[in-house]
């Protein structure tokens, strides 16, 4: 069976909740893995949000999972607000303007975000 990783390649380990040691007045973005047209990021927020009037308008699809804390994503198309708690995930298609409305200032909000230049297809509708 063919695979893309050499048998002697080093494996990488880490802990998604490991303390980052960064100042909590800034959001932390770490790229955990990447490949052509895809990257996986760990994002740690401490009350940060998008600046007033700023909207992300990305060329990539983004799948985001909230691991801890709390947050809300606002969408420009209909001014809706999607609140997220630990375990909630969201698929944001490329070109869908959005912003981080708020993140919890009381605790670290940890996100796992996957960005892809190829369209991501939701394959299962999870129950809320």
Set down the secondary structure blueprint.
Layout: E1 28-35, E2 38-45, E3 61-68, E4 71-75, E5 81-84, E6 89-92, E7 98-103, E8 109-116
Antiparallel strand pairs: 1-2, 2-8, 3-6, 3-8, 4-5, 4-7
List keywords for this structure.
40% strand, 8 strands, mainly beta, single chain, 128 residues, Jelly Rolls
Report on the architecture of this protein.
By secondary structure, the chain is mainly beta. The chain has a domain at 28-116: Jelly Rolls, CATH 2.60.120.10. Helices cover 0% and strands 40% of the residues. It is built from no helices and eight strands. It has a five-stranded antiparallel β-sheet, with no helix packed on it. It has a three-stranded antiparallel β-sheet with strand order 5-4-7, with no helix packed on it. A hairpin with a 5-residue loop joins strand 4 and strand 5. The protein is globular.
């Amino acid at each position: 069976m063919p695979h893309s990783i050499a048998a002697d390649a080093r494996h990488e380990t880490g802990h998604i909740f490991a303390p980052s040691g960064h100042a909590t007045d800034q959001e932390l973005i770490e790229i955990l893995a990447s490949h052509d047209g895809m990257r996986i990021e760990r994002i740690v927020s401490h009350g940060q949000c998008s600046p007033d009037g700023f909207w992300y308008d990305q060329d990539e699809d983004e799948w985001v999972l909230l691991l801890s804390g709390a947050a809300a994503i606002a969408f420009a198309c209909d001014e809706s607000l999607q609140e997220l708690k630990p375990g909630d995930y969201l698929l944001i298609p490329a070109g869908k303007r959005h912003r981080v409305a708020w993140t919890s200032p009381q605790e670290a909000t940890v996100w796992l975000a996957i960005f892809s230049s190829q369209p991501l297809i939701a394959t299962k509708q999870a129950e809320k």
